[in-house]
């Protein structure tokens, strides 16, 4: 049976398009390289729950469905946690990251415990998922033997998940904060792009941006010799001469009117 993510888009098309766009952006940014595999898993599994008969019946308007049973983000997030931990062998913190960004991909990131899922309706949703169709979708990209209702029941425990969430919450760092928000932004952007525009991602040649473009634009502006323009020029030159490759985050503090916008773009490039 063909599964759909949206009325005119198959689930397989949507999952793979989301993955391709997110990974393309990730590879361009060259940050948090250690999370590439995690991002791939998150994008491929973020709508896994749409394989349930409840969601398919709701989407295709075949029958009236209980609003709780058609939900898909929760079980998708739990499958990502289970796959990341049990199949990939990642630690609890990494597995929880995949869980968190999928659980909230229709909203916004919240506190770890605010995103916890109790077991209500999960067993029923799990039993309603077409795992044979999912194994067919994932056969070329994931280890599919785990995708069964029984494997989910064996590896999900509401009480143990709650303990893990509370423990890992105490050990999160500022690096984890940035990683979670970065990966969440890639997933939600790629997901919404495909859902809204219905396009399969196509790689395009990247147009290199250079700081010379900023200087050319600045030089094209009308020239007036006055105190404020002298201050802008001095600030522009000083900032460029003092930037260092030893750091990744910078602060540019200038009074209003001293050219922070062009200065910041120039420094970033």
Structure write-up:
The chain is mainly alpha-helical and 269 residues long. Helix content is 58%, strand content 2%. The chain contains 13 helices and 2 strands; from the N terminus they run E-E-H-H-H-H-H-H-H-H-H-H-H-H-H. A two-stranded antiparallel ribbon has the order 1-2. Helix 1 packs across helix 10 (174-197), helix 2 (36-45) runs antiparallel to helix 4 and helix 5 runs parallel beside helix 10 (174-197). The longest helix is centred in the C-terminal third of the chain and has 24 residues, at 174-197. The protein is elongated, with a radius of gyration of 23 Å. The mean pLDDT is 89.
Outline of this structure?
By secondary structure, this protein is mostly helical. Helix content is 58%, strand content 2%. The protein has 13 helices and 2 strands.
Strand and helix layout:
Elements: E1 4-6, E2 9-10, H1 11-29, H2 36-45, H3 53-59, H4 73-87, H5 92-103, H6 122-127, H7 131-138, H8 149-155, H9 158-169, H10 174-197, H11 211-220, H12 227-242, H13 260-268
Antiparallel strand pairs: 1-2
Helix pairs in contact: 1-2, 1-10, 2-4, 2-5, 4-5, 5-10, 11-13, 12-13
């Amino acid at each position: 049976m063909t599964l759909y993510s949206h009325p005119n888009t198959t689930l397989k098309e949507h999952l793979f398009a989301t993955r391709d766009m997110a990974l393309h952006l990730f590879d361009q940014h060259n940050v948090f390289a250690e999370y590439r595999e995690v991002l791939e898993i998150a994008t491929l599994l973020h709508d896994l729950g749409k394989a349930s008969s409840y969601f398919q019946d709701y989407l295709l308007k075949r029958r009236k469905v209980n609003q709780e049973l058609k939900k898909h983000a929760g079980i998708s997030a739990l499958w990502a946690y289970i796959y990341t931990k049990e199949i990939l062998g990642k630690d609890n913190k990494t597995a929880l990251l995949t869980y968190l960004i999928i659980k909230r991909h229709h909203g916004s990131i919240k506190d770890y415990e605010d995103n916890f899922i109790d077991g209500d309706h999960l067993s029923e949703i799990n039993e309603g998922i077409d795992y044979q169709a999912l194994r067919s979708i994932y056969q070329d990209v994931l280890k599919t033997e785990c995708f069964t209702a029984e494997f989910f029941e064996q590896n999900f425990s509401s009480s143990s998940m709650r303990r893990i969430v509370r423990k890992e919450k105490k050990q999160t760092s500022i690096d984890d904060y940035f990683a979670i928000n970065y990966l969440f932004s890639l997933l939600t952007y790629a997901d919404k792009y495909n859902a809204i525009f219905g396009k399969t991602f196509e790689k395009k040649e990247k147009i290199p941006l250079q700081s010379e473009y900023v200087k050319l634009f600045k030089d094209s502006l009308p020239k007036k010799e006055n105190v404020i323009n002298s201050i802008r020029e001095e600030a522009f030159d000083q900032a460029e001469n003092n930037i260092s490759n030893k750091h990744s985050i910078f602060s540019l503090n200038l009074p209003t009117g001293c050219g922070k916008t062009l200065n910041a773009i120039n420094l970033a490039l």
